[in-house]
Design brief:
Elements lengths: L1 H25 L1 E2 L1 H15 L2 H10 L2 H26 L5 H22 L5 H8 L3 H6 L3 H20 L1 E2 L4 H23 L3 H10 L1 H4 L5 H19 L12 E2 L10 E8 L18 H4 L4 E4 L2 E2 L5 H8 L19 H7 L3 E6 L12 E4 L22 H5 L12 E6 L33 H26 L7 E8 L4 E2 L5 E2 L9 H4 L3 E4 L8 H7 L4 E2 L3 H8 L2 E2 L15
Parallel strand pairs: 1-2, 4-9, 4-10, 6-14, 7-8, 7-9
Antiparallel strand pairs: 3-15, 5-13, 10-13, 11-12
Helix pairs in contact: 2-4, 2-5, 4-9, 5-8, 6-12
Amino acid sequence: MSKLLVLDTNIVKSDSVNSVRSKFYNREVNLTYLIIVVTLYLVATANIGFFKQVLTIYPVADNIGFLISLTGLLFGLMWLVFQLLCYRPTAKIVLITMVIIAAICGYFTDAYGTIFDSNMLTNSLQTDQAEAMGLMAPSLIIRVLLLGVLPAFIIRKIRLKRPSWRRAILQKTATLILSIALIAVCLLPFGNQYASFFRQHKLVRSYTNPITPIYSVIKLGTDYVDELSRPNTMILHATDAKRIAPVSSTAKPKLMVFVVGETVRADHIGLNGYKRDTMPLLASQPDIYSFKNATSCGTSTAYSVPCMFSYANRKDYDIDTAEYNENVLDTLNKQGVNVIWRDNNSSSKGVADRVTFEDYKTPGVNPNCDSECRDIGMLDGFDTLVKSDASPSTSKKDTLIVLHQMGNHGPAYYKRYPKEFEEYKPVCMTNELSKCDAQSVINGYDNAIRYTDYFLNAVIDTLKPYQQDYDVVMVYISDHGESLGENNIYLHGLPYSIAPNAQKQVPVIIWSPKDNSINSNSLSDMTNQPVSHDFITPTLLKFFGITTQEVAAAPTFFESAN
C-alpha cells in the first residue's frame, strides 16, 4: 500500500512539473515584452566590463545620477536596435544570436579586457586552430552554457503571439517612440557630461556588448565592400595645370607659410572685435588682414583638413573618396613647388601623403617640448626648408611650408600653452569640462589662442629676413571652431546642418607685406566679405602662378598686384 502511495505521489509530482513546463512553453508571449526582457538581461550580464570601466572614471558617490542615466541610455539604445531588427519571423534568430555573441564576447572582455573592434575581429579570423584552442578554458564553456546556450534554449521554446498586422504596427511604432524618448530623457539632463564622455572616453564606449561586436562586424563588411570598389589608381585633378612665367625678369620666387589652425572660433579673435585682446602681438604687426566672415568645410579635423586642400567645394566634397583624389598640394608639387608639411597634430589626414612630411609631435624631433610638444618647435631649422643659403648656381625654388598646429585642441585647453601664457584665470584644469564653470573653460581656451598669437607672430618674424630674396606671405586658417558650453554643447563635430556657428565660423588671418605680388587693396576689400575653406585651393594656385580650368572661375582671398 505504501509503495502504491509513493508511486502515486511521484506521478502527481511528475504531472505537476509537466503541467508547469507545459504552461510555460505553451503560453504565448508578446514579442515586445520578450525584447525588453532580453535587453535587460544583456545590459545586466554582458556589460560588466563596460560598467567597471565607467566606474573607474565616474565614482558612484559623485555621479549617481549620471550612472543611472548611462544605464538607461545603454538599455534604450539596445532596445531601439532590437526593435528595428526583430520582427516575428526573424525575432528568435536575432535574439538568440545576440545572446550567444554577448556570452562569448562578454567572457573575453571580462577575463582579458578584450575589445571587439574591427581590428580584433580581423585578428580573430586569422587565428589558427592551435591558437583558438589555447583560449579555451572551463570558465569560458561554463559562461557560454549558462549565459548563452541556456537563455537561447528558453528563447527558442517560447511561443510568440500572433497579433493582427494593424496591432503589430501600432505596437512597433509605440515601442520605437518610447525607446527614442528614453534615450532623450537620459541624454538631455547630462548633455554636457555626455559631450565629454563621448569625446574623451571612446575606449570605454568600446566595451559595450553586444553593440560593439555587432557594429564591428558591420564595419568590417562595409570596409571590405569599400576596398573592392576602391580605384586602382589615384583620380587625377588639374591635368591641364601650367605655370605662368613671371612678367618681370626680376620677379622673386614665392615663399608661403600656410598655418592650419586647430579648433579656433572666429568670435574669440581680438582682431575681429572680441572683448579680449587675444592676439596682441599680431595686432601690433603691420600688414595684417583678418577676415571677419569665414566658414569651415566641416566641424572636425578629419573632415575639414582634407576638404581644405581638395578640388571639391564644401557642397560636393565626399570624405569617403577624398583619399582617392589628388589635392592641390599634389598639383603644386608636380609643378615644381617645394612643398613641406610639418605636423604637430594627429596627422595630415592623407593630404601630405605624396609630399615631404615631417612629424613634430615627439621630443626627438621637436626641440620645444615640456608637458607636450609645442607648435613653436615647427619653426626649427627653417633655413633648411627654404634653402635661402643656396649657392649662386642653384636657383631658389617656389616653396610652400604647411604647419599643422596642435592649437586649441580640446578639451584640455589648459595643456595647450606654456604656463607663462596663462593671462586669464581661473582656468578649468580638467578635460571634464562640465565639472568647471563656464568662465574657467573660456579662460583656458582664450589662453591657448594667445599662444597661437605668439606662434603666428614668430612665423612672421621668421619670414621677414627672406623678403629680400622671396615674395613672402603667411596664411593662417583654422580647420573648424568649437562650442564652449553654449546650450550645454561642448567641443565640436556635430553634423554641419545642425552645428552652431561657433563650430563653423573660423579665423582667417593673412600677413602680406606691401612689397610682394599680392594686391593689398584686394585683401582689404575681402576681409569683410563672406569667405570659406573653398577659397584655399584656388588661392594657393594663384599665388604660385599656376592656372587650371578646374578652378578658373573660383574665388580667392586676394588678387595679384600685376
